Amino acid sequence: MDQKVSLPQLPNVALGQIFRNLDFLEVQPVRKVCQNLRSFIDNHHRLDSSLKYVSISVERGKFTVSYNFSDEDKKLSVVYENWPGGCFVQSQINGILRETYLEKQDSLEIFCNDFHNIWKNQKRELSSFSVEFFGENESSDFLNQCSSLLDNHFQIDQLHLFVTTSNQIISILKKVDPRCIVINNKNENRENLEIQDLMELNQWRNAERLFIRSFAISAPIQKFDHFKKVSVFFRTASWDDVSLLKEVNTTRQTCSNFEIFPEVSSRSE
Amino acid sequence: MSVEPEVPIVQVEEVRENPVLYKIISSDNHVFTISEHAVKLSKTLWDLITNLGLTAENALDNPIPVENVNGKNMETIVQFCERHKYDEEEPEYTNYIREFVLPEWDRQLLSIDNEELFQLILATNYLDIQKLMDYCCRVIGDMAKDKTPEELRIIYGIPTDAEDDALERSASDSPGPSG
């Protein structure tokens, strides 16, 4: 009598061959079947996730993430939401809707596990990464996870942040490498944005374009002169700033485009 | 006594080629005859034949015992090798998804339950038959498409991690003092 055999007991050469018939998205459910298959796939069968656009929205106890891949036919979006006693997960893979309720599980933890597994397998440039926050105090747990969550460096063309407080910006920006940084203030109140810490980051120095919307900033204009394109709102601008800008614009070889919208001040400087 | 003309067992092209035939004995003592071209698809068997120095003259007198493969799997394997013995060699595959189409004849041959398919993969791996390995793995891989982890667990006969742990515990726990 032959011993009973199941999939995880097959030799590695066979497992590798089996999974070669599956693409990145198709392998993901297999990873979740058992520890043996998960460790085989993570150690011996890592495929490029080939992401193109990723967007996350962060609410209290609820995370919505949408992945678009280089292959435009592939699409995955998942909602993780805390329900009483567990986490509700609704996923849509290439149009197929699935719903699961995971008892005694937390939406942030499940989201982080899934997200990190896809993010860590990205090997090429990502066209766009967007994070939107709802509410001000609900995001702290998510922000605490960001450093381990986004622990894989690859070029990102555009980073879009829709924030409600300034601390949401730095937690994400310091973990990614964008060419273009777009920061939107969801409160649309033109409040002052503390920008000092952001300007210290390599990401600030390495980016080529910067757009900050609905925040007012005050900072030395020299800190912006490496950007090819900048659109920001200064509450005040001195004559020195303006003349420096003029100088920068005339001496630079590259095409630069500064748009500064100073508020009309009642004080005369 | 039948008066029917004697029908040759081997196929026409075999006769034309005057093939060398080999005998293989499975783990449960079934005897199979396989042609030289077919047996060459199994790297393990062909190495064995070469090392044993079997020739057209002495091959049938020296059956090759294969203790790791039972008769049922060996029958499938012999059928497969005879079917594909004249196939042209295929190029090496890349790491990406295979584009090859599984022929209908082979899909039929491999329409067996998963437990049997896993056993066949083990036998194929032991006998080192690349093409059969590719085909078996394609069949298993295709089953995984558009399935949830729960569905896969049932399809592949895999216990959950918790069940697995419990099984291991009950297997390793020796009866001891309660407490």
UniProtKB/TrEMBL annotation, chain A:
Q: PROSITE patterns per the record?
A: FBOX
Where does the source fall among the domains of life?
Eukaryota
Positions of transmembrane segments: none
Q: Where is the F-box domain?
A: 4-54
What InterPro entries does this protein map onto? DUF38/FTH_CAE_spp, F-box_dom
Q: Give one Pfam hit by family name.
A: FTH
PANTHER family cross-referenced by the UniProt entry:
DUF38 DOMAIN-CONTAINING PROTEIN-RELATED, F-BOX A PROTEIN
The name under which this protein is listed is F-box domain-containing protein
> Where does this protein come from, organism-wise?
Caenorhabditis latens
Q: What is the lineage of its organism?
A: Eukaryota, Metazoa, Ecdysozoa, Nematoda, Chromadorea
TrEMBL record, chain B:
Instruction: Please list the GO biological process terms of this entry.
Output: ubiquitin-dependent protein catabolic process
| Keyword annotations | Ubl conjugation pathway
Q: Does the keyword DNA repair apply?
A: no
Sequence ranges assigned to domain SKP1 component dimerisation in this UniProt record: 130-166
Q: Which InterPro entries match?
A: SKP1 (IPR016897), SKP1-like (IPR001232), SKP1-like_dim_sf (IPR036296), SKP1/BTB/POZ_sf (IPR011333), Skp1_comp_dimer (IPR016072), Skp1_comp_POZ (IPR016073)
Domain (SKP1 component POZ) ranges: 23-85
Q: Kindly provide the name given to this protein in its UniProt entry.
A: Skp1-related protein
Organism whose genome encodes this protein: Caenorhabditis latens
Leader sequence segment: none
Q: Which family does it belong to?
A: Belongs to the SKP1 family.
Highest taxon in the source lineage: Eukaryota
